[in-house]
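User: Can you write out an input/output pair for a complex, sequences first and structure second?

Assistant: Here is one pair. Inputs:
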Amino acid sequence: MVSRTAAALTAATPAIAEAHFRAEAFPYHPVSRPDGYLNLGTAENRLLGDLLDRLAAELPPFSEPDTRYAPLHGTPLLRERIAQLLTACYRSPVDPENLVLVSGATAALDVIASALCDPGEAIVLPAPYYGAFDTDLGGRSGARLIPAPLSSANGFALDLAPVERALCLARRTGATVRAIALASPANPLGQVYPAEHLHELARLAEEYGVDLIGDQIYAHSVFGPRPFTALETLGSPRVHTVWGFAKDFGLPGFKAGVLHTTDPEVRAAARALAYFAPVSTGTQAVLTQLLADPDRTAGFLAENRRRLAASCAATVEQLARHGIGHVPAEAGCSLWIDLRDRLPEPGFVGERQLWRTIADRLRVNILPGEAFHSPEPGWFRLCHPLDASVVAEAVARLGTLPAQPAAAPLEWSHR
Amino acid sequence: MVSRTAAALTAATPAIAEAHFRAEAFPYHPVSRPDGYLNLGTAENRLLGDLLDRLAAELPPFSEPDTRYAPLHGTPLLRERIAQLLTACYRSPVDPENLVLVSGATAALDVIASALCDPGEAIVLPAPYYGAFDTDLGGRSGARLIPAPLSSANGFALDLAPVERALCLARRTGATVRAIALASPANPLGQVYPAEHLHELARLAEEYGVDLIGDQIYAHSVFGPRPFTALETLGSPRVHTVWGFAKDFGLPGFKAGVLHTTDPEVRAAARALAYFAPVSTGTQAVLTQLLADPDRTAGFLAENRRRLAASCAATVEQLARHGIGHVPAEAGCSLWIDLRDRLPEPGFVGERQLWRTIADRLRVNILPGEAFHSPEPGWFRLCHPLDASVVAEAVARLGTLPAQPAAAPLEWSHR
């Protein structure tokens, strides 16, 4: 018999991880396995292999001092270098003392949720939202996640009305909401939020006395024209953000995430929680070296943005060729594509059927909107930073899905 | 405002970590800082620097595949190699599928406690016990730790009577005990438990329907004549053990711990919890290489045991020269030393005074028995795997403590 928390977690193993490892086990190859799986389900940036190998060759091996105990919320030097990096990106000073390094952005999200929420307290999230937030923010903390459904009619823009409705409803039912959380830049949408929308969101949070949690893991992966607005620049003291090396540096296996908070009490709590999820000093030494030369880092990140932009543009072209719509993306690893007119029947039942067809018959791993609490069925997240031929093959396979004679009606659900 | 769990954790920041970093900031040096701090408070094995540097030089740098997502409970190859290592040491087959790798032994202890215990459920521990268990096992799970006081009269041998008393008392008061936990080899005592004592403990656990949690982090650090008995050999299906690279390999910064459980439900829960505390694939690649050659590994571990034995023997000699008693140690990094006759006044009040004198006046960092829930005041844990001159200087400073004219009476407390 296991504990209640453990039983709930076991039951809710993130679908994202399962789908990923299944697809990775039998990968597509144009010659040796043309009927293999195409994994466009995981937001893994695979455009940076050559750059990473070149960097790795320049780094010294670990030495004995790298193996010793170090402060469990990150070595001072690595936090200093991350603070420099984020200060430039956020255009807002980041103090290394306000950074808490833990073993991945997932752990950082768990830390902030556990620091803020007692079990049963709530976090409101504009939806669709990154599906793993359910586990990351709620799995150990016991926080309850409340989706605030955005509308496809305006391209899922960050609309305050549904967020405020969710806050009001929670208040009326006696629930304590502790925070509004969102990924910025957006995931799965790939949007860069306009500064004025984020300012309005911060005002709303203040009005309702709740904190703002921002997952800024794509902060350096903005390739569209709109500038990134860090939550740190909104003038609110109750902002807590997460960043990591997984996306912008293409180092998802390194599991290095960082929480930034200027609230001393939350910071103390986060440091105490970091004790349970520290990052290896060996990996910290590698990351410290990786950030040693700010010019080299800036060049690396700029090249990443160029490659992401090219990958996104090529994918959009493929989608257009096959008559598949999408929400325009300006950042990140994914496109939110529109398969509403391919649904075999209306509603999320139809979306699940379509997902199975795509996964089993087409052998393409993309995640259904339902996994992101999409307010409307028929949307899927497609991750594009892969070999261009893999993306082209996947989109071509998706293009074989027949448009349904009676297109599925737009059915709304708040789930 | 932070959550209740976070507030409790913040209030209970482990004294061990704080004392460590204070002492490390101003270290003793025979010439440049003869009045500096001597840190014998942390169970860090610093005898292996030359071996680690030699190994590090042989390891290849990371390459791009090492940076990708991998199963979050450890790569198959690393788990396989750890399983081989533990199979040899435990003299009991360890299946890699039953290993869950997480970011440190602390995380592994948190995982097993959280998998087993709902908040308020209890774990019984023979005391003195490793002080950080309070946080590791109880901090996030909400489990309550109940010390079962052993007796100095028989050298703190693993006596079942107090353990059974604690189980009975808990049962009478309506508390649900989920497990008995202990470090084996013992910490702070440095004992290797006789097989028959462990068998009796397993029978007691079975009788009371509770699991056994074993922290076997010193499994390869046994230098005395008595062979190590792994809990896995007791024939009980409800045994869960923790091991890591911190002590036996002298890699505390690498934060790689592993839980071993043959219970499928607990394993599933542990894998779900590992999602929040994964180990960097970069560090996993290094550890996989480190274990690549079983002969090299066996040689490394044998040399470690030789060095630990020599360090322990030299420390015992110094202690004897200064008239300080101790419990004979057969494993690990520490000696449990007897300063009962130096207590300035009776009880733990006197122990706290003596600790302050040792820390502030003698500038020696050793941890007081109270931090290990010692049932009797006047005992301290001294960690010896350091430069021999540092240990000699520390013991010499301790030797200046005056024996109290009226020796403190033996006062027992169950705290």
